[in-house]
Specification:
10 helices; 322 residues; disordered N terminus
């Protein structure tokens, strides 16, 4: 095994092993979610039919999700092929001209040690590994899309409440059925979010854990200055930009749910009690990581604070040994 890894840079060896573990974990979590997905989609479909009939389809939602998906998948594709280019640079290119065989032997040397080279084998292995590599980005994009859909729905409820307030301003009587129906809409949407949260909480923890550990690894390598070649440096920065942007977007889109859900609560709980029987008693509406932390803007500040603390520790550690 040590001979198989001998031609790969040390930092890339660690990255390959970590990637295999992460891909396996990700696949297991997605398969777990897939077993529960049909029942969840039935409930979501029922809720969407009601919301679309009353509020209509969210404007610009499809465009937003399309842009986010294309951006992160293209970025991950660039990082993947930079990684393969880095594998090729692990060999002395003056000894052998660049070819598909050289690409196969260098980038998939563990497989090439067991399976002889063939162009179809190289293509097949590349496709399989590329799809596996995209799982990380797909999971984050999937969570971002779910967050955007729910945030748009809560925004529709808040917008309708504000519109009704402007229309009813200065009038002594209000339509009690309006408040009761929109309260039902809010409760129905909140209940859907809580059900969804139970199903995707482990994916949320996986996503944040992987991106956070990747960020810490990047900071450690950056502060130590271990990257020597130009290709390794470019790959390192593109990879860092990829997981930092996914982590930031996931937090912002998820916290958007929390922000949009607060305005309807404020308006509904300010309605005179004779309009409906009780105030809303929901806890804070937000996605969570197995109820251990809530996805809001406070979480982003906590992550930044932890990163700064870690970076200061690394700087102090490096200074003590120089």
């Amino acid at each position: 095994m040590s001979r198989i890894f001998s031609d790969i840079p040390d930092t890339l060896q660690v990255e390959i092993v970590e990637s295999c573990v992460a891909i396996t974990t990700n696949s297991v979590l997605l398969l777990r979610l897939a077993t529960k997905w049909p029942d969840l989609m039935k409930e979501w479909n029922r809720n969407d039919k009601i919301m679309n009939k009353i509020y209509g389809h969210p404007k610009y939602l499809k465009l937003l999700i399309t842009i986010v998906t294309i951006f992160f998948l293209v970025l991950s594709t660039v990082v993947y092929f930079l990684q393969k280019l880095l594998c090729l640079h692990g060999e002395d290119q003056d000894q052998e001209p660049l070819s598909v065989k050289l690409y196969y032997d260098n980038c998939f040397n563990r497989i090439s040690s067991m399976v002889p080279y063939h162009p179809l084998v190289a293509i097949f292995v590349t496709i399989v590994q590329f799809e596996a590599y995209l799982l990380h980005s797909f999971t984050d994009v999937f969570l971002i899309a779910l967050s955007a859909i729910l945030a748009f729905r809560f925004h529709q409820i808040a917008a309708r409440l504000k519109q009704n307030q402007r229309q009813q301003f200065g009038m002594e009587t209000e339509d009690a059925s309006f408040w009761k129906n929109i309260r039902k809409d809010y409760c129905r949407l909140s209940s859907l979010l809580f059900v969804l949260d139970d199903h995707i909480s482990f994916l949320i923890i996986y996503s944040y854990g992987l991106n956070f550990l990747s960020l810490l690894h990047f900071l450690t390598e950056f502060l130590r200055g271990t990257e020597t070649s130009t290709v390794a440096t470019i790959h390192c920065y593109f990879n860092a930009f990829s997981f930092i942007s996914r982590l930031t977007c996931l937090t912002l889109f998820s916290s958007w749910i929390n922000e949009e859900s607060q305005e309807p609560i404020r308006i509904l709980n300010s309605v005179p009690p004779n309009e409906y029987s009780a105030e809303l008693s929901f806890d804070e509406v937000a996605l969570t990581g197995c109820k251990m932390f809530k996805l809001n803007k406070k979480l982003l500040l906590s992550i930044v604070s932890a990163i700064v603390t870690y970076e200061l520790m690394i700087i102090q550690y490096n200074n003590s040994y120089t």
